[in-house]
Design goal:
Structural class: mainly beta
Distance between the termini: 24 Å
Number of domains: 2
Number of helices: 1
Strand content: 25-35%
Radius of gyration: 19 Å
Order of helices and strands: EEEEEEEEEEEEEEHEE
Largest sheet: 10 strands, mixed
Helix content: under 10%
Length: 242
């Protein structure tokens, strides 16, 4: 199993970005820094300091895919891919969930996944051994790690992944995203002190006040802290993602 725990990093610097290839920490690794929390992420594009990031738009076709085989104790699942293609490694560090049939409810972290060919037989390789054998009644879903290839988006329903404290140069760079505690966050609207906020639906990376049915359908980010968040400002905001 891939070892993971609450990180104790003596040289932790949330203002540092890594531009060379190769992650120094696990994607999504969480670090407690006194009264704030951060996650290690890979950028999917250049990122702006103080703007919210989210997971990239998911491939919703990779659901209820038929299993060919998945023996107990094995570290791979043979399945029939959906009518879609992906690049090699795109879902590395992501997750496979058994969504139906024998073995339903199991979740495993993905070690590697080759490029997917539409409708072809494929293998997903896992960090851990399968605990309950799968058979041809089993169906699986595959999703990416939320902190892999993060973006500034204007889609309020996507999973929020945190705020960079410094500009990130380009896709493929590694950085720390703040997910809890007081943080300067850019707003596209007026957010009264103490009011909950969500990702804005029009300006990529901005936040705005939660209204109406959004309380049900959109992930909440936290609340304005003491000072009302004014449009086009990045006032103090108390993040509550983690």
């Amino acid at each position: 199993m891939k070892l993971e725990s609450v990180a104790q990093i003596l040289d932790f610097d949330p203002y540092n970005i890594r531009t060379e290839e190769g992650a120094t920490h696990n994607i999504g690794e969480r670090v407690y820094c006194a009264d704030r929390v951060f996650r290690f992420a890979a950028a999917g594009e250049a990122l702006t300091a103080g703007y919210m990031t989210t997971e990239p738009t998911g491939n919703t076709l990779l659901t209820t895919m038929a299993v060919v085989s998945g023996a107990k104790g094995a570290t791979s699942i043979n399945f029939t891919n959906a009518a879609t293609t992906t690049t090699a490694g795109y879902f590395n560090e992501g997750y496979v969930c058994v969504s139906y049939g024998t073995g339903i409810g199991q979740t495993y972290k993905i070690k590697s996944l080759a490029a997917l060919v539409s409708g072809a037989s494929s293998y997903v390789y896992l960090y851990d051994q399968i605990k309950v054998a799968l058979d041809t009644t089993s169906k699986i879903d595959i999703v990416a790690n939320p902190w892999n290839r993060v973006l500034h988006t204007a889609t309020a329903t996507l999973h929020p992944t945190g705020v960079p404290l410094v500009a990130v140069t380009a896709a493929g760079d590694y950085c720390w995203l703040q997910t809890r505690g007081i943080c300067s966050v850019f707003s596209d609207g007026t957010i009264a002190a103490g009011t909950k906020a969500e990702s804005d639906g029009s300006v990529a990376g901005a936040i705005d006040v939660v209204v109406g049915a959004d309380f049900v359908v959109n992930p909440q980010l936290g609340h304005a802290y003491h000072i009302a968040g004014a449009q086009n400002y990045a006032h103090p905001f108390f993040l509550e993602i983690d």
